[in-house]
From TrEMBL:
Domain of life: Bacteria
Record's protein name: LVIVD repeat-containing protein
InterPro entries found in the cross-reference section: LVIVD
SUPFAM superfamilies: Putative isomerase YbhE
Amino acid sequence: MELRTQVKAESPRTLEQPGKMYVKGKYLFVNEIKKGIHIIDNGNPANPKFVTFINIPGNGDIAVRDNVLYADSFSDLVSIDITDPAAPKEVGRVKNVFKTGLFDGGGWSLNESVGSITDQNVEWVTETVTVNCEDNVPPMTWWGGIWMLADRVSFNSSSSASPQSSGGTSGQAGSMARFALDRNFLYAVSQSDLHLFKIDKPAQPADFATVNLGWGIETIFPYDNKLFIGSSTGMFIYDNTNPAEPKQLSNFQHGRACDPVVVHENIAYVTLRTGTACGGGQNQLDLVDVSNPAAPQLIKSYQMESPHGLSIDFPTLFLCEGEHGLKVFDVTDKFSVDRNQLAHFKDMHAYDVISLGKTLMLIGEDGFYQYDSSNPKDLKMLSKIPVGKAI
């Protein structure tokens, strides 16, 4: 099919509608919603340089193991050799694996030709349903066995540095990631399922297993041989001691709201927000005791404005507030987080954040920012890649 021939390297281009970001070594990978991935040389955070753009139709998520980049392309999973970041090339593909539920984390527009890669005959049937809470999304359309967005998705999501397990050198994703790497497996959550891909041969991922999770699944965060999976109604915790066979331990439930998760030691930090397809009336940060992962317990909830993504560099918590900017908290005292706000930076749109020690990466509707975060109370901008401007 024509779309399957379009994964290719192209000249660098400007950011237009940036989505998720992923970091590995000196390289930054930024998703251009439903179009592909920017590869950026970030060896000097004060002067990042576009290297190339990988055209990947329908792309929304990214993960990198060694020199192989994994990405979704509509209903397919593709593997791309990035040994030479200036000349990436497709080396593997698993076709028609994301068959049920929206996967991409981006969207399709009514003003553009809507497409999906499948080997099936299709017919159009329109139906309104409740959809992914990861983004502010409109009603969807059922098309040939795949839920497709019926309008442009709003930029509304988040990220946070997530630890990676052994089994090759992986990068760092964030709290809104739908991809996670652990040992010889790539995990991908769709709206309803956890897909396991075996990557012992990194360039040739193999569809290994599928675990049904229900509906409204949004994010996945691997931590300490566990998978913390955010959904529109709660947080699932899976034992991942055997990466080939995740076992559900518990489901921490809350009212209907968007739900990215990050974890440090025995505490999960969960943001809930309204104003999306999730519904509900909650704009808050929840701290959840996960010392017994089979029986998580709410520690305390803190009211926020419009919480999106978050990143924990203990004791500092960075929390995105969308159009309200970025808040920084000292969470040493888990019962007094609201009284220990270190800073509130309002001159940015904060969608996705990754903390890398003394460097903070943040992405929003207006572009990509990097800060020296040596002093969390006083972030110093190192560089900015604005939307619509080349570097």
